[in-house]
Design goal:
Blueprint: H1 2-7, E1 9-13, E2 16-19, E3 24-26, E4 32-33, H2 37-48, H3 56-63, H4 71-85, H5 89-92, E5 93-96, E6 100-103, E7 107-111, E8 128-132, E9 136-138, H6 141-159, E10 164-168, E11 177-187, E12 190-199, E13 205-214, H7 225-246, H8 255-268, H9 271-287, H10 292-307, H11 316-333, H12 338-350, H13 354-365, H14 373-385, H15 389-402, H16 408-420, H17 424-437, H18 442-454, H19 458-471, H20 489-501, H21 508-512
Parallel strand pairs: 8-10, 8-11, 9-11
Antiparallel strand pairs: 1-2, 1-7, 2-3, 3-4, 5-6, 11-12, 12-13
Helix pairs in contact: 2-4, 6-7, 7-8, 8-9, 8-10, 9-10, 10-11, 10-12, 11-12, 12-13, 12-14, 13-14, 14-15, 14-16, 15-16, 16-17, 16-18, 17-18, 18-19, 18-20
Length: about 550
């Protein structure tokens, strides 16, 4: 409970208030001031250590452990805080030239107490608004204690998710918010939890589910429960926002809605959907040039155009460079974002900067904020292809345990990791499941060919080869410069041998350069990551159906 008490601390300084549990900064009129997550983390560190001189090096190491960022990241955070404090900034923060920063205001602390309903809020167009009600309970004191624990821990966990803002009830009504309610029941050795999402304006139920787990103690929640429940809630909110976005005309779409629609098309894995996603993310970046998640998703979509061979061959290196520039810019905007870090890890992988890629993927998985399935998927792919398939398997199975409704691509990635870990028999069911649900996702068929050959199922291997050829008739396997990017040369040789065993015959030109081509050294992108750069395109982007 000590940790919970620390999280309940409220810090008062000058005319401002920082509520650590709710993750909010309040101004003189008690209005919530918008600051980005890393700037908030910097302020919290400063109010916890007032009156002390903190060097730039110490602050960078404290706020961005295991991640390489420039001094500009810290400068931007300080600028954000000064902007939030307005004309009181000079009374709160002091810059000591060439030495660091000091929070000069007097700081007092207190335990957070219930606050009156805050005024109505409106969505910024970048986040979904969640209002968390205290969970109800039945069956006496044990359930009451567990309900309080669950409400507190759920508030903390949800606060870390990207794309949502969460408030503890009571809170002002808003037509754009979702209300979360629930109930805890301790029945014998079983803990039963019901959770539901309602439209805050109408009270209409949008989703409900029951979770049952063994009750391991009267004052302790089962391990993983809060992570599983919070992931389910955010997933359902995203789905509801996508449903609503499809009903809107294009001119009314918010930045978040464009990214959600783009993400949905991206995850289908087809060429046509990928180019729709490119268009959606470009529009989101144009509308909000400082929105980190749009750059992160666009980096991955540009990368797919390269690795799947959907753009002109002579534009592949430029596209790889652009993917890296986009991902780096995303991390500069939000250095603690698991999604942004995962995209940077993959872009580094494309440039064969293996150790940097693996280190960045690990940093994304252990970042202070929850990693969604998209981030975990990317990190596991980096780990598997970067020579650590066992680590990838552990991470992706963790993702599936928290969110069993992950997209089918997740199963393909698990199958590929198992394959690279020399477990083709275990890989087969995962790859078959993905192929059945995503019949146009060619990387799954590539892995399925290898798994089937190595387990002696030659007819299945030949059938998978036919599907891969149907999807990409002129595809030629090349490591690093094509759709394969294995760190270990033996992995590429193994895949190619399986393809040949299944009946694939390579063109004469490809045979002369089989797996020998090396990409030119990665260029340092001269251009910024904005929308003005050329992208490899195969066709004009199309408007997603149902969005106006």
């Amino acid at each position: 409970m000590a940790g919970a008490e620390a999280q309940a601390t409220v810090y008062r300084f000058d005319a401002f208030r920082l509520d650590a549990a709710r993750g909010t900064l309040h101004g003189p009129d008690d209005a919530i001031l918008e600051v980005r997550p890393k700037a908030f983390a910097l302020l919290r560190f400063l109010v916890e250590n007032p009156g002390k001189l903190h060097s730039r090096t110490d602050l960078l190491e404290t706020l961005w452990p295991d991640v390489v960022v420039t001094d500009d990241s810290l400068t931007q955070c300080m600028s954000d805080l000064r902007h939030a404090f307005g004309d009181r900034a000079s009374h709160i923060l002091k810059t000591v030239p060439r030495r660091g920063y000091v929070l000069t205001a007097d700081v007092t602390t207190e335990s957070r107490t219930p606050v009156p309903p805050s005024p109505p809020v409106t969505a910024t167009g970048r986040t979904a608004l969640l209002i968390l009600e205290p969970f109800d309970h039945v069956d006496g004191a044990p359930a009451a204690q567990l309900a309080r624990l669950l409400t507190t821990d759920l508030l903390t966990e949800l606060t870390g998710f990207e794309g949502v803002r969460v408030f503890a009830a009571p809170h002002g009504e808003t037509a754009e918010a979702y209300r979360i309610r629930g109930e805890v029941r301790a029945a014998g050795q079983t803990l039963r939890i019901t959770a539901r999402i309602e439209d805050a304006a109408t009270g209409g139920a949008l989703w409900a589910e029951r979770f049952e787990q063994p009750c391991i103690g009267l004052l302790e929640l089962p391990e993983g429960l809060v992570e599983t429940l919070s992931a389910a809630l955010v997933r359902q909110v995203d789905r509801e926002d996508v449903r609503r976005a499809r009903q809107k005309p294009d001119s009314e779409l918010t930045v978040r809605e464009r990214c959600l629609l783009g993400r949905e098309h991206h995850q289908r894995g087809t060429e046509a959907d990928t180019f729709v996603a490119l268009d959606m993310f470009d529009r989101a970046i144009a509308a909000a040039p400082d929105y980190a998640l749009a750059y992160a998703w666009q980096a991955f979509t540009v990368q797919r155009v390269v690795t799947y061979g959907w753009g002109p061959p002579d534009g592949a290196q430029a596209a790889r460079d652009r993917a890296l520039a986009l991902a780096r810019h995303a991390v500069e905007l939000d250095p603690e974002s698991p999604l942004c870090l995962s995209r940077l890890a993959f872009a580094l992988l494309l440039h064969q900067r293996w150790d940097e890629a693996v280190m960045t993927a690990r940093a994304a998985l252990r970042a202070g904020r929850p990693a969604d399935y998209a981030s975990r998927n990317t990190c596991t792919e980096v780990l598997a292809h970067g020579g650590h398939p066992g680590e990838a398997i552990e991470a992706i199975r963790r993702a599936l345990s928290l969110d069993p409704h992950c997209p089918p691509i997740t199963r393909s990635l698990l199958g590929r990791a198992l394959l690279l870990d020399s477990n083709p028999e275990e890989a087969l069911p995962e790859l078959r499941w993905c192929a059945a649900h995503l019949p146009d996702y060619v990387p799954c068929f590539h892995s399925l060919i290898v798994a089937a050959v190595e387990t002696g199922r030659m007819e299945e291997a030949r059938a998978a080869l036919r599907e891969a050829t149907r999807l990409q008739p002129n595809w030629v396997p090349r490591n690093h410069t094509g759709s394969w990017f294995f760190r270990r040369a033996g992995d590429a040789e193994r895949f190619l041998a399986a393809f040949r065993a299944a009946g694939w015959v390579e063109p004469e030109a490809a045979r002369a350069n089989d797996n020998q081509a090396e990409p030119r050294p990665p260029a340092s992108p001269a251009d910024g990551p904005g929308t003005g750069q050329a992208i490899p395109t195969a066709r004009p982007a199309k408007r997603p159906a149902g969005t106006g």
